Every structure is written in structure tokens, then in C-alpha cells.
Amino acid sequence: MIILVINCGSSSIKYQLLDMKSDDVFDVIAKGIAEKIGLPMGILQYAPSGKEKIVKEIPISDHKVGMQLILDALTNKETGVLESLEDIEAVGHRIVQGGDFFSGSALVNEDVLSKIAYCAEFAPLHNPAHLLGIRAIQHVLPTVPQVVTFDTAFHQTMPPYAYMYGLPYEYYDEYRVRRYGAHGTSHQYVAQKGAKFAGLDFNAAKIITCHLGAGSSICAIDGGKCVDTSMGFSPLEGMIMGTRVGNIDANAVLFLMKKLGTTPDEMTEILNRKSGFLGLTGKTSDAREMNVLANEGDPKAKLAFKKFTYDIIKNIGSYVAAMNGVDLIVFTGGIGENNCRLRRRVLENFSYLGLKLDYQANTVGGTDALLTAPDSAVKAVAICTNEELVIARDTMKLVLESQE
User: What is the model's pTM?
Assistant: First the structure.
């Protein structure tokens, strides 16, 4: 089944075209991104498998235009990979926020779209863009089935004592204010693959997954189900991130709003876009650049790196306690897959559990790897995440079921 996987941001559309023969047998035919949508000049990147990437500067006024440009690239007579748009059999979308409406992926219909729109208040930077992407596909491929996969769905197994805040209960009843988490698609994929890689039973093991990138979250998985995760009502909660503050006393936010005279929207911008690595270093939100600065002796970069490491250790430790043990720790995401020094600093703190790091194995980057010694009581792995594959799998499954 030829499936187009779409990940819409507020000003971008990432995409992959996959030929899904089965869950584990597939080919990535092409991938790319349309960027700077709505700005005077956009960028379209198109990379057919095994061929040179094509990059074009072109105006992209809205998501509908961006989607059409992507489809035109895929069907281009000289460089395209499809004979016609009729070759696309289904489209799968990543959706950041599904609230407590969805515990799994769903076929797109008007009821599903209305619920995604309802959850836009919880994810104002993401859900409206996802809806634009879905509507754009409906416009250019009106007969092709679409499926949505939610970042929040995997976390719907959290018990109420893990997802509720200590606010008046009516705020949950009326406004659905609770912890939802994020990165669920990634956490589920790397936990399943990591367990298999380490020779463990996913449905019986206690697993802690660390998705570390510009946005970072940690998830506790017991018996194949999420029991807790570090992100909350929004992706702001949890550890320090590229531009997000992470956990902060709400009174500190109110104090600053009074001192600075900021509006709620202005404070939202500070907490989400001007804090984290960028806020502490004053120079960069990129972990790679921060690493370089820290190695050069920059004290603020060293502080940000140490705080990030400490936040990871603290979250893992709390989940070990919550699950009464751990069998496997998984690292993924751009930082988790590639920063061996960070992994070493984190894992060395769990020697009390009988975890024995294989220092040579831990030097790898960008590949799946077992990071612990054969006699380690707790195993650790690095697993390259593949959210697009999860979306494609769910899309194929739901579309085939609907056709039976």
C-alpha cells in the first residue's frame, strides 16, 4: 500500500511516501519538507530514495499550496516517484493533541475533525496546522482515505492519580485540564523495538523511554502500558528543553508577569520559545551547539547541559520508584540517539541498580545499540525512532479494516 505520511507544523509540512508491504516490510520512496509557509519566500525539499535531494525556493502562501507542491514533486515527469496521484492509496497524519477522546489512531471523518478542533485550545501551535493539512488533502485527493495518529493516545492508560493536577476538580470536568503527555508515538515504537532488541518481553517488562531532542519527554511503561510521562497538559511541562522552561513554580510565572507587565500570550511566548537551553545560555537552543560551547568552557552552556542531564536522571529515578524497578532504559530522539556523553552521565547514576555500562558500545551514534554489559542487571539501549513508520502501519491497518 502506497501511503503518504504528513506532519504539519504551523509553517511547515514534513512528509514521507512509503510503500507498505507489511508492518515490517516497506520501502521509503521519498521524503522532504515544505518550509516557511505564509512567508514571502518558502522552501521545498524533495528527496527521492537513492537520488539527490532537490531544494527549491518558491512562494508557499498556505498549506493547500504547500500540499499541492509536494504532490507535484512526487508526480514530476522527470524526478517524481509516482505515475499519478491515483497511486496514493492512503494518507496518515501526526496529530499532537487528541485530548482524552482518542486512545488509538482513527479514520478521518467530520466527528474526528471536530474533536481535533476542540483540542486546538490545548495545542494552539499544532492542532490548527494539522487540520489545515487534512483539509488540504481533502481538497487535492478527495477520495483517498485519511488516518490520524495522536501523540497523546499512548498515554491514555495513565491512571487518574498520575494525570490529574491538584486543582479544583470542576476545572477538569469543565475544561479538561489534566496531564496528557506527548511523543507517545515515539515512546511506544522505541519501547517495543528496544524490548525486542534487548531480548525482553514488552508486555511483561518495566521500561523507561527517554525521547530527547528539541522537545524532550520521559515515559514509564509497565507491562506494555504507559503509567506516567513527564510532559503534562502541554509539552511545556517536564525537563528543560531547547526553548521550553520545563517544570516551574506557577507562582514564579505570576510574579514575573507582574514585574514585567506581560500578557498571558507574551508569557506563553517566553516560557515556550525563549527559555530552556536558549534562555540559560543566551546563545542557542540547539543541543549540538550547546555541547560545543560547553566544551569551550562557556559557563552558562555547562549549566544548561548539567541541568538537562540532572532532569533526565531525576525523572528516570522517580519512575524506577513508581514502578518498583526497571528492566530497560531506552534513549531516542536527536540527542538520545547521538550524544554518547549524555547517555554515559545519565546511566552512571544507576549503578546502584546493577546497571553496568559498556563504555565502548556507548560510543555509537545514530544507530540501534545495546549500551550495557552482558551481566548488567538493568539493560539500556539506543533506538532510532521512526514515528512515520508507526503512522504508516496504523494507516494501513485501519484502511484495510474499513475495506473488509
Answer: 0.91
